[in-house]
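User: Can you model how fe (iii) ion sits in this protein?
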Amino acid sequence: MHADLHLHTFFSDGTFSPEEVVRRAKLLGLRAISLTDHDTMEGCERAAVACAEAGIEFIPGSELTAEYNDHELHLLGYHLDAQHPRLRGEMAKFQQVRQDRIREMVARINQLGIPLAVDDVFALANCRSPGRPHVARALVEGEFCGSLDEAFERFLRKGKPAWVPKFKMSAVEAIQLVHDAGGMAVLAHPGINKSDEFIPALVEAGLDGIECFHTKHSTSLSQRYLEAAEKYNLLVTGGSDCHGLSKGKPIIGTVRVPYACVERLRAKMFERAANAGLLLAKLPTPAA
Ligand code: AMP
Ligand code: ZN
Ligand code: FE
Ligand code: FE
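Assistant: Here's the modeled complex, given as C-alpha coordinates:
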Protein backbone atom coordinates (compact mmCIF):
# COMPACT_ATOMS: atom_id res chain seq x y z
CA MET A 1 0.00 0.00 0.00
CA HIS A 2 1.63 3.16 -1.22
CA ALA A 3 1.00 6.85 -1.65
CA ASP A 4 2.30 9.72 -3.79
CA LEU A 5 2.09 12.99 -1.90
CA HIS A 6 3.72 15.38 -4.36
CA LEU A 7 1.85 15.87 -7.64
CA HIS A 8 1.24 18.82 -9.98
CA THR A 9 -1.57 19.49 -12.46
CA PHE A 10 -2.29 22.05 -15.16
CA PHE A 11 -3.53 24.41 -12.45
CA SER A 12 0.18 25.22 -12.02
CA ASP A 13 3.09 23.97 -14.12
CA GLY A 14 2.00 20.35 -14.55
CA THR A 15 0.30 19.13 -17.71
CA PHE A 16 -2.23 16.58 -16.40
CA SER A 17 -5.76 17.45 -15.34
CA PRO A 18 -6.71 16.43 -11.77
CA GLU A 19 -8.81 13.59 -13.27
CA GLU A 20 -5.84 12.35 -15.31
CA VAL A 21 -3.65 12.29 -12.20
CA VAL A 22 -6.29 10.28 -10.34
CA ARG A 23 -6.84 7.91 -13.28
CA ARG A 24 -3.11 7.15 -13.31
CA ALA A 25 -2.99 6.79 -9.52
CA LYS A 26 -5.81 4.25 -9.77
CA LEU A 27 -4.01 2.28 -12.50
CA LEU A 28 -0.93 2.17 -10.27
CA GLY A 29 -2.98 0.97 -7.30
CA LEU A 30 -2.06 3.93 -5.09
CA ARG A 31 -4.01 4.10 -1.86
CA ALA A 32 -3.60 7.86 -1.22
CA ILE A 33 -2.47 10.93 -3.14
CA SER A 34 -2.11 14.65 -2.59
CA LEU A 35 -2.11 17.47 -5.14
CA THR A 36 0.58 20.00 -4.39
CA ASP A 37 0.31 22.61 -7.12
CA HIS A 38 2.47 25.70 -6.75
CA ASP A 39 0.64 28.46 -4.87
CA THR A 40 -2.85 27.22 -5.71
CA MET A 41 -5.41 24.64 -4.58
CA GLU A 42 -7.75 25.03 -7.54
CA GLY A 43 -7.33 21.42 -8.63
CA CYS A 44 -8.13 19.92 -5.23
CA GLU A 45 -11.91 19.89 -5.47
CA ARG A 46 -11.88 18.04 -8.80
CA ALA A 47 -9.22 15.64 -7.54
CA ALA A 48 -11.23 14.97 -4.38
CA VAL A 49 -14.31 14.06 -6.46
CA ALA A 50 -12.29 11.81 -8.79
CA CYS A 51 -10.53 10.16 -5.83
CA ALA A 52 -13.83 9.47 -4.06
CA GLU A 53 -15.07 7.72 -7.22
CA ALA A 54 -11.82 5.77 -7.55
CA GLY A 55 -11.66 4.77 -3.88
CA ILE A 56 -8.41 6.66 -3.31
CA GLU A 57 -7.76 8.74 -0.21
CA PHE A 58 -7.18 12.39 -1.11
CA ILE A 59 -5.19 14.97 0.84
CA PRO A 60 -5.69 18.59 -0.23
CA GLY A 61 -2.31 20.26 -0.50
CA SER A 62 -0.17 22.95 -2.06
CA GLU A 63 3.52 23.73 -2.55
CA LEU A 64 4.46 27.21 -1.38
CA THR A 65 7.66 28.96 -2.39
CA ALA A 66 9.37 30.38 0.68
CA GLU A 67 12.76 31.61 1.79
CA TYR A 68 14.93 31.42 4.83
CA ASN A 69 17.90 33.80 5.02
CA ASP A 70 17.56 34.52 1.28
CA HIS A 71 17.70 30.82 0.52
CA GLU A 72 14.78 29.45 -1.54
CA LEU A 73 12.94 26.52 -0.16
CA HIS A 74 9.60 24.87 -0.88
CA LEU A 75 7.06 24.17 1.78
CA LEU A 76 4.33 21.57 1.31
CA GLY A 77 1.06 22.15 3.13
CA TYR A 78 -1.14 19.06 3.67
CA HIS A 79 -4.75 18.85 4.86
CA LEU A 80 -5.12 22.54 4.12
CA ASP A 81 -8.54 24.17 4.17
CA ALA A 82 -8.81 25.50 0.61
CA GLN A 83 -11.50 27.96 1.74
CA HIS A 84 -9.41 29.53 4.51
CA PRO A 85 -9.68 33.29 3.79
CA ARG A 86 -6.10 34.27 4.58
CA LEU A 87 -4.63 31.28 2.74
CA ARG A 88 -6.77 32.17 -0.28
CA GLY A 89 -5.63 35.79 -0.09
CA GLU A 90 -1.96 34.89 0.18
CA MET A 91 -2.19 32.40 -2.69
CA ALA A 92 -3.90 35.05 -4.85
CA LYS A 93 -0.96 37.39 -4.11
CA PHE A 94 1.58 34.70 -5.04
CA GLN A 95 -0.31 34.07 -8.28
CA GLN A 96 -0.21 37.79 -9.14
CA VAL A 97 3.53 37.82 -8.44
CA ARG A 98 3.96 34.81 -10.75
CA GLN A 99 2.03 36.51 -13.57
CA ASP A 100 4.05 39.74 -13.19
CA ARG A 101 7.23 37.68 -13.22
CA ILE A 102 6.22 36.01 -16.50
CA ARG A 103 5.81 39.47 -18.06
CA GLU A 104 9.24 40.52 -16.79
CA MET A 105 10.92 37.31 -18.03
CA VAL A 106 9.33 37.68 -21.48
CA ALA A 107 10.38 41.36 -21.63
CA ARG A 108 13.96 40.30 -20.97
CA ILE A 109 13.74 37.60 -23.65
CA ASN A 110 12.39 40.24 -26.06
CA GLN A 111 15.35 42.52 -25.19
CA LEU A 112 17.61 39.68 -26.34
CA GLY A 113 15.97 39.95 -29.78
CA ILE A 114 13.60 36.99 -29.44
CA PRO A 115 10.03 37.99 -30.35
CA LEU A 116 8.23 35.70 -27.89
CA ALA A 117 4.71 37.04 -27.33
CA VAL A 118 3.67 37.25 -23.69
CA ASP A 119 0.07 36.46 -24.67
CA ASP A 120 1.27 33.19 -26.19
CA VAL A 121 2.88 32.26 -22.85
CA PHE A 122 -0.30 33.08 -20.93
CA ALA A 123 -2.45 31.21 -23.49
CA LEU A 124 -0.23 28.16 -23.18
CA ALA A 125 -0.10 28.38 -19.36
CA ASN A 126 -3.89 28.85 -19.16
CA CYS A 127 -3.75 29.00 -15.35
CA ARG A 128 -3.49 31.54 -12.55
CA SER A 129 -0.21 30.18 -11.22
CA PRO A 130 2.19 30.15 -14.19
CA GLY A 131 5.92 29.50 -13.88
CA ARG A 132 9.16 29.21 -15.78
CA PRO A 133 8.22 25.85 -17.36
CA HIS A 134 5.44 27.65 -19.26
CA VAL A 135 7.92 30.18 -20.65
CA ALA A 136 10.21 27.29 -21.60
CA ARG A 137 7.36 25.46 -23.36
CA ALA A 138 6.37 28.63 -25.25
CA LEU A 139 10.00 29.10 -26.35
CA VAL A 140 10.01 25.55 -27.72
CA GLU A 141 6.59 25.88 -29.38
CA GLY A 142 7.68 29.16 -31.00
CA GLU A 143 10.79 27.33 -32.27
CA PHE A 144 13.08 29.75 -30.43
CA CYS A 145 14.59 26.82 -28.53
CA GLY A 146 15.03 23.16 -29.44
CA SER A 147 14.14 21.78 -26.00
CA LEU A 148 12.97 22.72 -22.52
CA ASP A 149 16.48 22.06 -21.21
CA GLU A 150 17.89 24.48 -23.77
CA ALA A 151 15.33 27.13 -22.73
CA PHE A 152 16.38 26.80 -19.08
CA GLU A 153 20.09 26.71 -19.88
CA ARG A 154 20.04 29.72 -22.19
CA PHE A 155 17.50 31.91 -20.47
CA LEU A 156 15.64 30.76 -17.40
CA ARG A 157 17.99 29.11 -14.96
CA LYS A 158 19.02 31.22 -11.96
CA GLY A 159 21.66 33.69 -13.15
CA LYS A 160 20.73 33.39 -16.83
CA PRO A 161 19.64 36.55 -18.71
CA ALA A 162 15.85 36.11 -18.44
CA TRP A 163 15.85 34.82 -14.86
CA VAL A 164 13.87 37.06 -12.54
CA PRO A 165 13.88 36.56 -8.78
CA LYS A 166 10.51 35.68 -7.30
CA PHE A 167 9.01 37.30 -4.24
CA LYS A 168 8.87 34.70 -1.50
CA MET A 169 7.24 34.58 1.86
CA SER A 170 9.53 33.83 4.77
CA ALA A 171 9.46 30.15 5.69
CA VAL A 172 8.50 31.03 9.27
CA GLU A 173 5.44 32.94 8.03
CA ALA A 174 4.62 30.16 5.56
CA ILE A 175 4.64 27.54 8.33
CA GLN A 176 2.33 29.79 10.38
CA LEU A 177 0.03 30.27 7.38
CA VAL A 178 -0.19 26.51 6.81
CA HIS A 179 -1.03 26.00 10.49
CA ASP A 180 -3.63 28.77 10.46
CA ALA A 181 -5.28 27.02 7.48
CA GLY A 182 -5.45 23.77 9.48
CA GLY A 183 -2.58 22.14 7.61
CA MET A 184 0.65 20.34 8.30
CA ALA A 185 3.86 22.05 7.11
CA VAL A 186 6.43 19.82 5.42
CA LEU A 187 9.81 20.81 4.02
CA ALA A 188 9.85 19.75 0.35
CA HIS A 189 12.85 18.03 -1.27
CA PRO A 190 15.57 19.40 1.05
CA GLY A 191 18.10 17.57 -1.11
CA ILE A 192 17.31 19.85 -4.08
CA ASN A 193 17.22 23.11 -2.15
CA LYS A 194 20.19 22.15 0.03
CA SER A 195 18.32 23.40 3.07
CA ASP A 196 19.88 21.13 5.73
CA GLU A 197 21.38 23.94 7.75
CA PHE A 198 17.95 25.59 8.18
CA ILE A 199 16.16 22.50 9.46
CA PRO A 200 16.67 23.28 13.19
CA ALA A 201 15.30 26.82 12.75
CA LEU A 202 12.33 25.52 10.76
CA VAL A 203 11.63 22.95 13.46
CA GLU A 204 11.74 25.79 15.97
CA ALA A 205 9.16 27.62 13.78
CA GLY A 206 6.83 24.61 13.95
CA LEU A 207 7.76 22.49 10.95
CA ASP A 208 5.77 19.24 11.07
CA GLY A 209 7.52 17.04 8.55
CA ILE A 210 10.18 16.49 5.97
CA GLU A 211 9.90 15.07 2.45
CA CYS A 212 12.40 12.22 2.68
CA PHE A 213 11.36 10.34 -0.46
CA HIS A 214 11.58 12.29 -3.72
CA THR A 215 12.51 11.56 -7.34
CA LYS A 216 15.65 13.63 -6.96
CA HIS A 217 16.75 12.11 -3.65
CA SER A 218 19.19 9.23 -3.90
CA THR A 219 18.79 6.34 -1.45
CA SER A 220 21.51 7.84 0.73
CA LEU A 221 19.88 11.29 0.69
CA SER A 222 16.54 9.74 1.66
CA GLN A 223 18.34 7.95 4.49
CA ARG A 224 19.91 11.20 5.65
CA TYR A 225 16.49 12.88 5.87
CA LEU A 226 14.92 9.88 7.56
CA GLU A 227 17.59 10.30 10.23
CA ALA A 228 16.83 14.03 10.46
CA ALA A 229 13.11 13.21 10.84
CA GLU A 230 13.95 10.85 13.68
CA LYS A 231 16.25 13.37 15.34
CA TYR A 232 13.74 16.24 15.24
CA ASN A 233 10.61 14.11 15.68
CA LEU A 234 9.25 15.11 12.27
CA LEU A 235 6.71 13.33 10.08
CA VAL A 236 8.09 11.58 7.01
CA THR A 237 6.49 12.20 3.61
CA GLY A 238 7.41 11.70 -0.01
CA GLY A 239 6.27 11.90 -3.57
CA SER A 240 7.29 11.85 -7.19
CA ASP A 241 6.85 15.60 -7.93
CA CYS A 242 5.26 14.46 -11.20
CA HIS A 243 4.55 17.37 -13.57
CA GLY A 244 3.07 15.24 -16.36
CA LEU A 245 5.11 13.36 -18.90
CA SER A 246 8.84 13.63 -18.32
CA LYS A 247 10.82 12.46 -21.34
CA GLY A 248 7.69 10.65 -22.49
CA LYS A 249 6.97 8.93 -19.18
CA PRO A 250 4.86 9.94 -16.18
CA ILE A 251 6.81 9.59 -12.93
CA ILE A 252 3.70 9.45 -10.73
CA GLY A 253 3.98 6.51 -8.34
CA THR A 254 7.67 5.89 -8.99
CA VAL A 255 8.59 7.13 -5.51
CA ARG A 256 6.95 4.56 -3.27
CA VAL A 257 5.82 6.16 -0.05
CA PRO A 258 4.55 3.75 2.62
CA TYR A 259 0.88 4.32 3.48
CA ALA A 260 1.88 4.51 7.16
CA CYS A 261 3.24 8.03 6.38
CA VAL A 262 -0.29 9.09 5.39
CA GLU A 263 -1.72 7.65 8.61
CA ARG A 264 0.83 9.46 10.77
CA LEU A 265 0.20 12.71 8.90
CA ARG A 266 -3.55 12.35 9.46
CA ALA A 267 -3.10 11.38 13.12
CA LYS A 268 -0.99 14.46 13.86
CA MET A 269 -3.44 16.69 12.01
CA PHE A 270 -6.35 15.28 14.04
CA GLU A 271 -4.43 15.63 17.28
CA ARG A 272 -3.77 19.31 16.56
CA ALA A 273 -7.34 19.94 15.45
CA ALA A 274 -8.65 18.24 18.61
CA ASN A 275 -6.37 20.33 20.80
CA ALA A 276 -7.68 23.45 19.08
CA GLY A 277 -11.29 22.27 19.42
CA LEU A 278 -11.71 22.09 15.63
CA LEU A 279 -12.33 18.37 15.32
CA LEU A 280 -15.78 18.65 13.73
CA ALA A 281 -14.39 20.73 10.89
CA LYS A 282 -11.97 17.98 9.99
CA LEU A 283 -13.82 14.99 8.66
CA PRO A 284 -11.56 12.37 7.10
CA THR A 285 -11.70 11.65 3.36
CA PRO A 286 -13.21 8.18 3.09
CA ALA A 287 -10.75 5.59 1.84
CA ALA A 288 -11.68 2.55 -0.23
P1 AMP B 1 9.27 28.68 -10.98
O1 AMP B 1 8.31 28.25 -9.91
O2 AMP B 1 8.62 29.57 -11.99
O3 AMP B 1 10.56 29.25 -10.45
O4 AMP B 1 9.66 27.35 -11.78
C1 AMP B 1 10.16 26.26 -11.08
C2 AMP B 1 9.82 24.97 -11.80
O5 AMP B 1 10.64 24.89 -12.97
C3 AMP B 1 10.13 23.75 -10.98
O6 AMP B 1 8.93 23.21 -10.46
C4 AMP B 1 10.74 22.76 -11.94
O7 AMP B 1 9.76 21.79 -12.28
C5 AMP B 1 11.03 23.56 -13.19
N1 AMP B 1 12.48 23.61 -13.49
C6 AMP B 1 13.44 24.22 -12.77
N2 AMP B 1 14.65 24.08 -13.36
C7 AMP B 1 14.44 23.37 -14.50
C8 AMP B 1 15.28 22.88 -15.56
N3 AMP B 1 16.60 23.14 -15.57
N4 AMP B 1 14.70 22.19 -16.55
C9 AMP B 1 13.38 21.93 -16.55
N5 AMP B 1 12.53 22.36 -15.58
C10 AMP B 1 13.05 23.06 -14.56
ZN1 ZN C 1 6.58 22.67 -10.59
FE1 FE D 1 9.42 22.08 -5.43
FE1 FE E 1 6.78 20.28 -6.86
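A couple of observations from the model: The longest helix spans residues 85-111. The longest strand covers residues 57-68.
User: Helpful, thanks.
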